[in-house]
Amino acid sequence: MYDRGVVDRALQLKAQGLTDRTVAQLCGVSVSAVRHWRRGTRRGPRSRTRIGTPKCLCPRCHGRELDHRAYAYLLGLYLGDGYIVGTRPKEQGGHGFELACSESWPGIREAAATAITQVMPGLTVGRRHRTGCVVLRATSKHWPCLFPQHGPGMKHTRKIELADRQQKIVDEHTEEFIRGLIHSDGCRSMNRVRRPLKDGDRWYEYPRYTFTNESKDIQRLFTDALDRLGIAWRQMNRKNISVARRDAVARLDEFVGPKY
Question: Tell me: the pLDDT tens digits for 87-108?
Fold first, then answer.
């Protein structure tokens, strides 16, 4: 049984594109051992985790660089319409990351698929059609590493808070985080208001953004992000946040805009 450090070094060398034989020579092991590690049919000591292919390495477990901008956007989508599920035993990877995207917004669906592959390069994004929506799915055992908010039950029934590493990314890319939240659980619409006057009713309308989520914790993450950018908001009711001031709407229009 080889030391875990040898296994890790072999994996790192494979990630650089070297052949199995070259990796074996550099690490002083057999070619068959490298092949087994690459395929996941042999494990190093103190490890019961299958070694993934280099292109799907986890940023947390293997130190691969993470696209922070794409992650901030994907985190917003996940908190709204995303979830992580276990896979069937015959499926390798351990967890399926799924996003439910409305059929009415194909542009957002493709932006979400792109964000998934930017966060975890090398994964294949599948599409499953349901009534009124398309579910995007990508499988990897490392999704819970990237989204520690994963847990049993619906998000609004449990505590949702960001890890320090996530908060740092959200602080760095606040606009992308807000954009993901609105693309999942928000909208931009025209609000019509009737004002009764002596000479008859008068109607006027104005654009506003609305964010709807049952979780108070996720609402707070949204409003905290708005506060960091100086965007005014108000609590409409138990689950709805409104952004309606002209300058605030104009600010959101700069990086969000209507769904597409």
Answer: 655 445 578 899 998 888 989 9
| DSSP-derived secondary structure letter, 213 | -
Confidence band, pLDDT 50/70/90 cuts, at residue 181: very high
Q: For residue 219, how far is the Cα from the chain centroid? A: 17
Residue 74 phi/psi, 5-degree rounding, is -65, -35
Helix 246-255 to helix 174-185 angle (10° resolution) is 100
**C-alpha dihedral (192, 195, 196, 202), degrees to nearest 10:** -70
Q: Is the pLDDT of residue 66 over 70?
A: yes
Cα(72)–Cα(64) distance, integer angstroms: 17
Looking up tokens 């399926």, which residue turns up? 96
Question: Which tokens hold the place of 176?
Answer: 């992308």
Q: Which residue has the tokens 């707070």?
A: 220
Task: Tell me the Ramachandran region of residue 66: left when phi exceeds 0, alpha when psi lies from -120 to 50, beta otherwise.
Answer: beta
Please state whether beta strands 186-197 and 234-235 pair in parallel, antiparallel, or not at all (unpaired). Answer: unpaired
Q: Count the residues in the chain.
A: 260
| Contact yes or no for 95/144 (Cβ under 8 A) | yes
Task: Annotate 61-116 with three-state secondary structure.
Answer: HHCCCCCHHHHHHHHHHHHHHEEEEECCCCCCCCEEEEEEEECCCHHHHHHHHHHH
User: Cβ of 243: how many Cβ atoms within 10 Å?
Assistant: 25
Structure tokens of 207? 């654009």
Answer for the pair 231, 243: CB distance below 8 angstroms, yes or no: yes
Q: Token match 């550099």: residue?
A: 26
What is the pLDDT at residue 193? 77
Cα dist. 193→29, 45, 200 in Å? 74, 67, 14
CA distances from 151 to 86, 97, 99, 144, 148 (A): 11, 13, 16, 9, 8
Contact between 145 and 61 (Cβ < 8 Å): yes
